[in-house]
What we know:
Elements: E1 3-5, H1 10-16, H2 21-31, E2 36-39, H3 44-56, E3 62-65, H4 72-85, E4 89-92, H5 98-105, H6 112-128, E5 136-138, E6 155-158, E7 163-166, H7 174-184, E8 243-245, H8 248-254
Parallel strand pairs: 2-3, 2-5, 3-4, 5-7
Antiparallel strand pairs: 1-8, 6-7
This protein binds iron/sulfur cluster.
Residues 67, 69, 109, 115, 118-119, 122-123, 200-201, 203-204, 229 line the site of iron/sulfur cluster (SF4).
Amino acid sequence: MPRLTQADLSERNKAFESRTPQDLLRWAAETFPGRVAAISALQRAGSVVCHMIGGLELDIPILFVDTGVNFPETLATRDAIGEACGLEIRTLTPPQTMDEQTAELGVLYCTPEGQKECCRLRKIEPLRAVADQFDCLIGSLRRSEGGQRSFCPILAADPDMNVVRVNPLVTFDDDSLNGYIDEHSVILNPLHEQGYPTVSCNRCTTPVLENEPRRAGRWRHLGPWQAYCGINPTDLDTDTQTAVELPQQLIDKVLGREADFMI
Length: 263
Ligand code: SF4
């Protein structure tokens, strides 16, 4: 199968820097018809992507990974956004409940190595189980989040899922995000107003003080060495030779070698 590397995507990424998030979402829907989904944990930026997909009436389902230990507010946000925006939300779940996992493996998330395994079992594996249904997964990473995400490309090769990742909000800074939320009254997880700038599982997310970094509440019990769960490959891998395998015709389309679509 032909390979598409991160280096191959560099010219396309440069050209896409000036595109709006809506342009990029339309491009993804037209380039990968029936083979594209958005992943959302229903945090602020993810809710904005969901709202945009609904507003544009794109045929893009939303994949939500329910680890079984999400906050009830997160599940309620998922249901409210799905209903309000007319979205098809597919909830993915791990094969074991957290109780079953704990009975078999113990409490994993209390150590750095255990946390990686727990996130793999409860977040990454449910997504991997459906990855062969897609050639493209849309995310909601933003460079203004800082850290590794400061360098996040718009298009990224994800060899683990063998998909092209599209991050339409990478150039959205906080003002742009908040402006969109206010203008469109986007439904948000109420925990964001209760001291949680970011929200994940209830076992590993705490509120954040005003003088702390916005991700300080994630895996606080593990200390500063752990910052990401790994579900977004560009958080961990910036190798330009990272590659996915796709049909040549689709690679040509991704790279703009065919003029059968416009953005
Ligand atoms: S965030 Fe915590 S509870 Fe959730 S999957 Fe990762 S380690 Fe497990």
